[in-house]
Amino acid sequence: MKKILPVIMILMLILSSCKGAEYNSDKIQVYASFYAMNDFVRTVGGDDIVYHSIVPLDTEPHDFEPTAADMAKLSESDVFVYNGAGMESWAEKVADTLPDTVSVVCASSNLPEYLDGDPHVWLSFKNVKVQLQSICDAFSEVDASNAVKYQERTNAYISELDELENEYKNAGLSGRKIFVTHGAYEYLCNEFGMEQAALEGISGESDPSPAQMASVVDQIRADGAKCIFYDPLEGDKIAKAAAQEAGIEALPLYTFEGDGEHRDYITVMRENLEQLKKAF
Fold it and tell me: HEC string of the chain?
């Protein structure tokens, strides 16, 4: 990244003198860092924006590094939305280099719940509602003529989130333990009174050691768990190994960091609820 940033600045200066074809639109141009932010941007903006994702929508974002060309495009955008909280190691550095004409939204600011060292803030419904409103406020400031529509979309989606939140509350999840390969579900667990036991850490960067694997398998057997969950974006190899050892199922539980089917947040989180019900 240290070598990329100077190139970014040069490209920004070059591009600032001319607009590319993709920017010849009366709609505001919005860049989002990765899948979850892209979905929230699309939800709030609807047909009144042109939106782009820096990280490809079916790509795991933890270790992703954008190209200099990706970053240069940001200099011509109207809004740049990123999660923050350590999710995108490059985003804060890049945000500091953008011209004042770009409205930058760090969607993890001012959240009702924040766990230090865990960037997966959007797995909390309460947090998502705040993130959506932050994005809505930025769009409304940049494009005041469509402010009412941005707020209407935000309100409608929050109402849908309220309904799904109630489904989770009524699903008997409180007091349950889930076994996962990727320790990314702490926000979801906290919100609904669950506990997670993970084979890997929050980032999921390294495979578990034999000792870690054995420890979790022992816990699975002791708890009588029916399954272990994995994020399909990362693959099921480790989960299936643990499941085979423990004699249980390996099932998908989405972190919403990316999605090959390009589904929206509510669709994916409703699928997650159905998967969670199979664990108990």
Answer: CCCHHHHHHHHHHHHCCCCCHHHCCCCEEEEECCHHHHHHHHHHHHHHEEEEECCCCCCCCCCCCCCHHHHHHHCCCCEEEECCCCCCCCHHHHHCCCCCCCEEEECCCCCCCCCCCCCCHHHCHHHHHHHHHHHHHHHHHHCHHHHHHHHHHHHHHHHHHHHHHHHHHCCCCCCCEEEECCCCCHHHHHHCCCEEEECCCCCCCCCCCHHHHHHHHHHHHHHCCCEEEECCCCCCHHHHHHHHHHCCEEEECCCCCCCCCCCCHHHHHHHHHHHHHCCC
